[in-house]
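mind reviewing this stuff:

——
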Amino acid sequence: MFKVLISQTCQKIINLPASNICCRTLLSEAYKCSTSWNNRLSSPIFQKVDPDKLYYELENNFGPNGKATAIDVDIYANSVNNIDHLDSLADLLHKLRLSRETSNTLDSTSHAVIRIFHDLGEHNELLTILNDRINYGIFLDPFTSNILLDHFIESKDFTSAAKIASMLMLQEDFTNDINKSLSLHACLQYIQNPTPFEPIVEEPVVKETKPQGKKKQEEIRVRVRFLRNEFFDDHFDLRDGHLLVGKTLHMIGQNLGMNKIGNSCSLLGLVLHKKFEKAQEFIQTIDKNSIYDEARDSINTALNTVEINESNQQLIDSLKKSVQVLSGGCGLYENVETMVKDSIAKQEPLDITEQEKLHEEWNKIREEKLQAQLDRFHKAKVIAESEAKLKELEDEERKLWFFENEEKLDLEIEAKEDFYRKRMVKKKKSSKAIDEDYIP
C-alpha cells in the first residue's frame, strides 16, 4: 500500500475538502427512469407471476428432462422484488449459464438483475456476480454502470467504483461519455487511497515434519475442480487492483486523445499497469508540459514501490529521470470534475430518452418471445398427441388384421431372428480373434 506524494505546488488543490474534490449530486433522480422501468409490472405477464412458485417450477425444469428457457429466467428476474428472492435469482442465473439456453439470454435480464440488487442494497453480492462472468453471465450496460458509479462515488466507496470502471475496461466499452468521465474520476480517487480489490488470503504455514525411521512418506493428493492454463492474457486474467485500474486509466486516456488529461491518464495507467517500456516510449512522443503535476507525483509514488532487480533497474532509473522533467501544472482533479459535470449535462437527457425507449422495446420483445415459446410448446403438444393417436390406431389395425397378415408377421419375426443370430455369431468370432503381434 502506498501513499500519494504531493508536490508543494499542488498541495492546496489536493488538500481541498472532500466535498470539493468529489462531485456531489452527480446524476439526477430522473436518470433512473423508475416510472418507465416499473411500467413493465403492469403487463399481464407479471400480474400472474408468483416468484416462489415460478422459482420451484424453473428449478425442476433445469433438470435433465427440463425445458427451462432464457425468457423464463428473464420473467423471474423482472418479477423479483424481495431480498429473500435474491439467492434464488443467483441460483437460476448460474443454472441458465450452464445450459444451452444461455446464448438466448435477453439484455433486459442483466439490467433487471443489476437494478434489483442495487435497489435492495446488496452491492457486495452484486459485485461478486458481475465479477464472475463465466458462472453468471451478467454484464453492465451504459445505464446500470452509470447508476452504480454514481452510487459508489457519492458514498465515497471508490474501491467499488473502480471495480465497476475496470469491468467497463474489460468489456472495452467507454463510448458513453458519462461512463468515461465517472470511471476516470473513480480511478483517480481510488489511487489516492487504494485498497485490494479482493481480500488477501493468508496461506497456512505448513510445518515440515521429519519422517520417523524408514517409514515411507505418504503422498498427499489434492482434488481440484479444474486446472487453468499457464497462459496469461493480461486482460481477463488480471486480478490485482493496481493493474486493473492502470489498464482502465490507459484505455480512458487513449479514448480521450492527445490532450493534457488524456496524456496524464495514459502515462499514469501504463506505470500502474507496469508497462514501463511503453511508458518510456510514450514520454518521448509527448510534450513535457502535457502531464499534470498530480499525475506525475502519482507516477513517482508508483515507481518508488516497484521491486528493483538487475533486469529492471536501468529501465526504472531511466523512467524516473524522464518523469522528473514533466511539469504541466496543477488542475487534474478540477478539470476531471468539470469533465464529469459537462458530460452529465450533455449526455443525461439523451440517456434518459434512450432508456425509456429500451424499456418499451424490452417489454415488447418479452411478450413476443413468450408468445413464440407458448406457440412452440402448443405445437409440440399437438404433435405428441397426434403421434400417440397414430400409434394407437396402428396397434388397433394390427389387431384387427392379424389373421390376414399372419404370414407376413411370421416372415418379419423370422428375419429378426436371423439378424440377431448372425450378430451373436459375429461377436463370438471377434472375441476369439488373437492378435499375432500381442506379447503377454
The chain has a mean pLDDT of 85. Residues 332-400 form the longest helix (69 residues).
